[in-house]
Amino acid sequence: MPREERETQIVRAGTEEFGKNGYAGASMVEIARRVGVTKPLLYQYFGSKDGLYLACLHRAGDRLTEGVAETMAEEGEPPERMPLAVLSAIFETFDNDRYAWKLLRDPTVPSTGEIAGVAVDYRYRLDGFALVGAAQLMRSRGLDDDRDIEAIAQVWTGVVDSLISWWIDQPDQDAAAMTERCSRIMRNLFGW
Fold first, then answer.
1. Is the pLDDT of residue 70 over 70?
2. Which positions make up the DNA-binding region (predicted)?
3. Would the pTM of this model clear 0.70, i.e. be above it?
């Protein structure tokens, strides 16, 4: 198998292992077993557990931040529909790779060093998207208080994390089903 394909296999298996067990609980032996390679091959390709985690984290973070940025940049979507559009983009991004989300919020990563810095950067970018979306929505309703906007952005981030965490354990719910579920919830809660 060409190296690029093997690396992709390893990153997918690593993403699931890290997502299920966190950085601290993930096993390189288990990742190698899932792919059908030896543990030394993982180290040959990625150098270390940190190297593999970073590859998995970059893949998840880049896909997510690009998808959310593209969705938010689309013209013509009214502010009250943007939360559902963003959720839909997240569900589509991770539909066949749900554990990737967990890497972005993994509480077991080291608190210093390269992994910590990369994880904080992705969270910072995602929190920035939440703040922009909250500002657009609140201001479209005549609410301009910056602290209110910060608070609703924080609430939104928690809602998204909770929804995706629930979704990970629902294998029968694909991206389209989750988007429809969230549409029903928002329509009933907020009249959107």
1. yes
2. 27-46
3. yes
